[in-house]
Design goal:
By secondary structure, the chain is an alpha/beta fold. The protein has a single domain, classed as P-loop containing nucleotide triphosphate hydrolases (Rossmann fold, 3-Layer(aba) Sandwich), CATH 3.40.50.300. It has seven helices and nine strands. Strands 2-7-1-8-9 form a five-stranded parallel β-sheet, sandwiched between helices. A hairpin with a 2-residue loop joins strand 5 and strand 6 (78-83). The protein is globular, with a radius of gyration of 16 Å.
Amino acid sequence: MARAKLIVISAPSGCGKTTIAHEILRRHPEMRFSVSATTRRRRQGETEGKDYFFLERDDFEQRIARGELVEHERIYDDYYGTLKDQVDRSLNDGVSMVFDIDVNGALSIRKKYPSESVLIFIDPPSMDVLRSRLLGRKTEDPEAIQKRVERMPMELEKGRVFDFRVVNDDLQKAVKEVDEIVCRAIESPV
């Protein structure tokens, strides 16, 4: 019998976690995507409620004070977090949820939902490849990229305590490995 799980995919920026998360959702349309809330500016092509819930800083801080977030963190001068009502609704409906979040958020989800969470860390094949991917995205200025690079050692260290680690040196292979982990997790008996 399938059971609802919180499938948390995390990695440093540029490792492919978003691409992998979207492919898992394509393969498992019965799952929901956890749309994070953020105070950062919307990028071109992003949609409210689909990519993020874009909130003003005051609204976000009020939600923190009211305990409405499962996890939250300030990253690169903006807040990011997961709305508790979204997670609880999914679990109550018996629907697994896929997360694409940072390592600290992943560890917070494990702390609050220890038996429902499955943490998957996506490793880069190397730091040089990772830097090249970040530069190739052309979505951020050099200062923002440098902040992401400085954060990577901490992220890689925290990734060591995740349930699973998958190296993304070949996207299709990485997706296949993550999909196998997901299938085992949701098909385990309650």
